[in-house]
Amino acid sequence: MNQLDQLKKFTTVVADTGDFAQLRQYSPTDSTTNPSLIYAASQEAQYEHLLKDAIHFGKTHGKTDSEHLAFALDKVFVNFGLEILKIVPGRVSTEVDARLSFDVDASVEKAKRLISLYEAAGISRKRILIKLASTWEGVLAAEKLEKEGIHCNMTLLFSLVQAIACAEVSATLISPFVGRILDWYKKAQGVSSYAPSDDPGVKSVTSIYQYYKKFGYKTQIMGASFRNKEEILELAGCDLLTISPNLLEELKNSSEPVQRKLEHSMAQSSLHQKIHVNEKAFRWGLNEDAMATEKLSEGIRNFTKDILKLETLLKSKF
């Protein structure tokens, strides 16, 4: 068996791409998207019809130019999600506009609009994960949405305090960003690499896994944003891993043995103590973690840049 097939014995494999043409090669269970991936895919000629459909939708909804654009943008994200759901048997993650990361009510409203577009196309909300930034406001939005049966994937997550807050509101899924944590520490400590088991991103996800399993949280953990195959293999056994096509290919082309690294049993002997995270604890804990603070803000800014690029692309086609 190749490494990808071996990994699937321990972990649900999710494809991290907006290019659904690549999905069939790797037979993932689920797929995730984000503004950066959708913007990149939207520039491909083979997906032009999805943009045209979204533009037509935008023109026939709303009253002002800004509303036309907003509806078209939502429909682009949903159109890509609908195509992905034709290929994967499980779920697709669709992201709420990063510009709403500090607005609870607007995030909830946007999530409901995305869900309504999927449901209008005949897709059950059970197959959709709404991605929200793991800000305090994102946590509160997730709490409201989960109570209405809208499942949430908490993204841009870099710390245990964020993970605990998400679990305490019963978010369906969290996506800790392994590679971006590694990037920060390499730059901060002036090193070129870490041994796989010492990778700061790997250690962060391992700690979250131990905490969740020790205290019986139902929220699932999906490691994301990998920089190399070794990070993935160090997290074999994690609930889910979302992996880019280039790394899926590396796993598929190797037959080296894969060992399960994360086990429920190991969590019980961890040194974690139970922590309750309210708003004050969340903001203080995040503030005390320079890496998490910087990477969360950077992630929101970068996703916003790609949303603006996608809007510009749509405007040019209106």
SSE order and pairing:
Blueprint: H1 3-7, E1 12-16, E2 30-32, H2 35-42, H3 48-59, H4 65-85, E3 92-95, H5 104-120, E4 128-133, H6 136-147, E5 152-157, H7 160-168, E6 173-176, H8 178-189, H9 200-214, E7 220-223, H10 229-234, E8 240-243, H11 245-252, H12 264-267, H13 279-288, H14 290-317
Parallel strand pairs: 1-2, 1-8, 2-3, 3-4, 4-5, 5-6, 6-7, 7-8
Helix pairs in contact: 2-14, 3-4, 4-5, 5-6, 7-9, 8-9
Could you characterize what this model shows?
- The protein is α/β, with parallel strands linked by helices.
- It is 53% helix and 11% strand.
- It has 14 helices and eight strands.
- The chain has helices at residues 3-7, 35-42, 48-59, 65-85, 104-120, 136-147, 160-168, 178-189, 200-214, 229-234, 245-252, 264-267, 279-288, 290-317, and strands at residues 12-16, 30-32, 92-95, 128-133, 152-157, 173-176, 220-223, 240-243.
- Helix 10 links the parallel strand 7 (220-223) and strand 8.
A few lines on this structure:
This protein is α/β, with parallel strands linked by helices. The chain contains 14 helices and eight strands.
How far is the N terminus from the C terminus?
49 Å
The whole-number mean of residue pLDDT values reads: 96
Shape: globular
How many discrete domains? 1
Rounded to an integer in angstroms, the radius of gyration calculated over CA atoms is 19 Å
CATH class type: Alpha Beta
Low-confidence stretches: none
Question: How many strand segments?
Answer: 8
Biggest sheet descriptor: 8 strands, parallel, barrel
> Could you say what the CATH topology is called?
TIM Barrel
Helix share bin: 40-55%
Order of helices and strands: HEEHHHEHEHEHEHHEHEHHHH
Number of helices: 14
Portion of residues in beta strands equals: 5-15%
The name of the CATH superfamily reads Aldolase class I
Strand order of the largest sheet: 1-2-3-4-5-6-7-8
